[in-house]
Amino acid sequence: MKRHVIRGLVMLGLFAAVATTVHAQNVVDSVEVRNRKDGTTKIYSGQFKVTPAGFQVFSGEKFDKPGDTFSPDDIVKLSIGDLPGVDRSSINALRAKEDKKTTKDYTEAAAGYKALAKAGLADRSRRYLEYKVNALNHKLVDELDGKEWQEKADKSISDWKGFQADYKNAFGWEMWPAVRGMTRLQIERGKYDDAATSWEKLRASAELPPDAKLEAGLQEIDLRIRSKVYANASILAEDLFKTAAGPRKERLAIYLLAAKAGSDGKYGDGIDKIKAEMEKTKDPSVHATGYAMMGELHLANNKPRDAMWMCLWVETVVNQDKDEVFKAISRLAGIFEKELVDEEQAKKYREKLKRYRSAF
Q1: pLDDT band at 13 (very low <50, low <70, confident <90, very high)
Q2: N or C: which end of the chain has fewer CB within 10 A?
């Protein structure tokens, strides 16, 4: 009798151990996504992927059942699950360091992820680990200012460029936040044409879904106009305008007016037409684009004070889009430093820019 009981207890222990092992080896990704319409969030569990159909979480034993699609910019929180060839406890330990949000812990976590990114890993694992290294180093850069920030920001941009080049044929969801991060630094460094090229390369990815391609195109157009490459901006805007709808189509209409005015040198005429176009809608994203583009035309026409007022309007009134606000604050810092030569205001906006980085 005792022998049967002992055998039963042993078998029960084995089953429990197996169950625990299986569970430990099947930790899935968890993605919290915000609904733009009402602000509520929903958590998806499975394996997070990007395919030509969209950004989505796949469920099922083989992760072959696609879920809802959503915009990568609407992701509130992402917790990665198991990675092939990577010890789960190591990931958990590094994530715990990140959560402390100190310079020391970010530095140690970046080094930890780099050590895990050994040769021979599956693309999914290696891509994620290298993304985390760059993302954490970027966080460290965001804490700096002055000359040290400039040097480290350029190094971070170079690292992101390398990441984009290395994984253009092993595309994953990480590429979107990678390009977002890289272009934010390029914008802050005033390298608008480089930032436009970064979005152009992302837009060329076959795996990128149509909605994301359109957003990447809008970003590219915006930055081409800011760098005064009006012809390229106009060609792309005309192409996207054919199939776009809603506020995005309205924004493209404004981009087309700005690009034409910049190309023709008829800045005042372009500003008047943009104002008229803005009156057709109350959408804040369209108005933010309108004021931003009027500011760019004022700058091109050597009217920095008028440009300043346009940027201030984006920062303080039509400020629902954090990317537009960031670009406005960045422009204001440059205008006060270079065109208006107001060091006190320039310093104020450089400090504001540093604080605003935490919104990303």
Answers
A1: very low
A2: N
CA atoms in the 13 A half-sphere facing the CB of 222: 25
| Token reading at 108 | 């140690």
Tokens 């540093």, residue located: 354
- Alpha-carbon torsion (258, 263, 267, 269), positive or negative: negative
Nearest to 203 by CA among 252, 248, 168: 168
CB atoms < 10 A from the CB of 34, how many? 17
Among 309, 275, 272, smallest CA distance to 289 is for 275
Write down the H helix ranges in the chain: 2-24, 88-100, 103-116, 123-142, 146-166, 175-188, 192-203, 210-226, 230-241, 246-264, 267-278, 284-300, 304-316, 322-334, 343-356
Kindly state whether residue 238 falls inside one of the protein's structural domains.
yes
Indicate whether 63 and 183 sit together in one domain. no
In this predicted structure, what is the pLDDT of residue 8?
46
Question: How many residues make up the chain in this entry?
Answer: 360
**For residue 332, how far is the Cα from the chain centroid?**
22
* 246 residue type, one letter: G
Q: What is the CATH number of the domain that holds 188?
A: 1.25.40
User: Quick check: is 122 in a domain?
Assistant: no
Instruction: Taking each helix axis as running N to C, give the angle between helix 267-278 and helix 246-264, from 0 to 180 degrees, rounded to the nearest 10.
Output: 170
- Return all residues near 125 (Cβ < 8 A) that are at least 6 apart: 83, 84, 85, 86, 117
Q: What is the pLDDT of residues 123-156, one digit of tens each?
A: 999 999 999 999 999 999 999 999 999 999 999 9
105-123 pLDDT, tens digit per residue, is 999 999 999 999 998 999 9
In a domain, 90, yes or no: no
pLDDT digits 0-9 by tens, 289-316: 999 999 999 999 999 999 999 999 999 9
How far apart CA 224 and CA 71 sit, in angstroms, is 23
| The model's pTM | 0.90
Half-sphere exposure of 317 (CA within 13 A, CB side): 15
Q: What are phi and psi of 43, to 5 degrees?
A: -105, 125
Q: How far apart are CA 262 and CA 300, in angstroms?
A: 7
